[in-house]
Amino acid sequence: MSAALTISAATVPGRITGVSLTLARGVMAGLVGPNGSGKSTLLQVAAGLLSADGGQVLWNNRSPARIPMLERGRCAAWVPQDARFEFGFTVRSVVAQGRYAHGDDGKNIDEALALFDLAPLASRPVNRLSGGERQRVLLARAHATGAPLLLWDEPLAALDPRHALEVLLLGNKHTRAGGTLLFSLHDLRMAYVLDIVVVMHEGRLRAIGKPSEVLTPELLLEVFGVRSEIIPSLSLALP
Amino acid sequence: MPSASTTSACRNRRAAAGRFAVPLALAVLVILAFASLCIGDMNLTPARTLDGLLRREELATFVIWNMRLPRLLVAMLVGGALASSGLVMQAYFRNSLASPGLLGVSAGGTAGAVVAIGAGFAVNTLFFLPFASIVGACFATACVIMLARRGAGTERLLLAGIALNAMLGAVASYVLSNATLTYERNAQILFWLLGGLEDRTWEHVWMASPIVLAALFLWPLGRQMDLLSLGADEAQSLGVDVRRLRRVLLVLSTILTALATAVTGTVGFVGLTVPHIFRLLVGPEHKRLVPLSLIGGAAFVVACDLIGREAGGLRIGIVTSLIGGPFFLWLLRREA
Question: CB–CB of B95 and A120 under 8 A?
């Protein structure tokens, strides 16, 4: 299996220390950990936005630093945690920015708008949207890039249950089509849909593997300080 | 759905406005420019103005070529420079209230020029003034960058601007109050502080002419400014070479402001008002805002100059501030 994302010994002083991980193609991976455990930093390192300070990041076995800037925009798409917009671009024009690295060819845009349920909002200015709507605009823009490697920072935080499930489903489709997705999340109950879960704790990689093997009651107590129990509970699915 | 139809109607109107905005702004600029050549202490008919432009009549030729044309060209260059510089700063800081005046970059250019005049560098030639102005403006830009990092909140940005404006104003005041200065130099400094288009010569036009070059560099960066104005990390992730873009934008906006300041002194509120008006009219896409700010800024300053002349010789800096100041207050009220 070829590695879509390799991070080795990534260190950002004061935030993460010596984090190494490898994600194969077609993997949907979740990044969990308490607040301040370094999830966002790790995603920024993975996206090539922060330098790994002696460590290394590889996309498909190539260092992003060696890839021309424009091509990087076609290889990986990063979505930030808080979606703030100062200027009133329309939803459509923000999603269209995802095609910048493709010479603004206008492809994928209608599809991305439809997938993230944004078609009715297409001509609305982004700075007049709700938090969840803005989040979906950024996810749609990342989708429009067509990049195989997606890095989402808490994509579900602001979404209602239906849109959260739809976004998870889209992530699942993306990885089954051969793409790779790494995203951070807080709702550990969602973690069971993932192929791989990456657990961060105090800036270090605590565990990585299948959710059922990694998210043991012992680990959850140690890392998150919560006792866990699997019980029949309210479970949501798309109709 | 009524709301959907209104927003789409709004979008269509904006799209239509966008398509015609550049030719329309150009037409307005041409009309204002021609009016500015006709109107003055000695009013010329349009036909006589044309004769003067084509050097067919001696008196009109003298008035146009020696007095009004250089003044008009300086006004246009300064207006385009300040408005586009404001637009760049707004994209750079992701803040629609950023502008050369409010951030203290104009004050930096002024302080540089004042120090140069005070030190006697500008006695025989104006050649050194733009450089002194650029040095001052660069200093101010560097301070703003340090005080308020990218995506800084409005409060932080404006407070940094207030502090810089006060500091750089103090530098200018110190030079001005320096008792060793001659009366002529003091008058020259006062002239700078007031901002003026009076008695502009071809020397001033040449001095400001690199503005055209800077504008040409800025022209193709509109698309990248769109992405940058919604976040630096996001833009980089989408394939923009953000570090390079920001360096280029910063250099261009500083030079544009400094050159404008060097030829006319501080002319306030152009960089804030003009991009804002066009953003309201045609939306936030920089592909349109860059040409519109250049053209519209030129038209705005030419119009303000006309108003000032008709009002009995008000200096340009006074007119732009009297128009732009209330506009800024209105914006603040609107955003609150």
Answer: no
